[in-house]
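Running this now, will post back.
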Amino acid sequence: MTGDKILEIKNLHVYYLTEEETIRAVNGLNLEVSEGESVGLVGETGAGKTTACLAVMQLVPDPPGVIADGEILYKGENLIYASEKRHREIRGNGISMIFQDPMTALNPVMTIGQQLMEVVQTHQKLGRAQAKDKVIKILEIVGVKGDRFNDYPHQFSGGMKQRVVITMALLCQPELLIADEPTTALDVTIQAQVLEIIRKLQKDLGTSMLLISHDLGVVAEICTKVAIMYAGEIVEFGTVPEVFRSTRHPYTRGLFESIPRLESKSEKLTPIDGLPPNPADLPCGCAFHPRCRHRKPVCEREEPPMRGEGHIYKCHFEL
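Update: finished.
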């Protein structure tokens, strides 16, 4: 691992524009992923995690979505200003994405083999025989037998479909893998198998990874660093041990307090008060202040600074 930056997101703003309102899904997001790193992106539903990653892939639906400001640098190249031809070259070969729902990520009227071969032939210009050999080899690495090459998606279970989707994302050996909650639709046993496959392939191929999740346990299992996202921005970032053992932001602390623990004798969990903010009407000052037990008047008036070095957090106070 050289430590060179694969991905740099700087002051990213992504909005969804309608006639009635502007939905500010991502607001000044800053994030980096270096070679060989696994970074977890954690937050509640609606925090902007998936939108941020669609922006990296240049797949934000337009309309109504628009990248209003910021930079997305892949190995120093700003993808926002790259041509559509260049985007197609990077997708699959440079950056690949495992989408959230394996049930809808595959074309139901094409065989698994046809869909996977299309990826290889499009991005790597291989002949039919070479493409088929490569597809079968990687299918078998993720635990799908080669004799299922001509089966259709409906003939696979949810866990097997997810293995096929992982195969699709890794066929061209991308330098950066974005995994959007890859275990959400799977039962616990299959989750563990899929996570082990992703971890092993990432290690064997040297791929960097950005893992979107709302499950802190999954992040602890796979990632080296973690970014906590709230209302479209990063509120805490550091290595997994730093964030898990020395939590700095009230929101991150709230996430940990709402997780059941085997060693705890408490009969009740401590939930975070209130609901996530409406992205079309974000509060002034600190976006988290309406739900924060530690808030003071300054939190309602002023946006907090980013504090710390290495392990950073966005809050007016040191907890």
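The longest strand covers residues 5-17. More later if anyone needs it.
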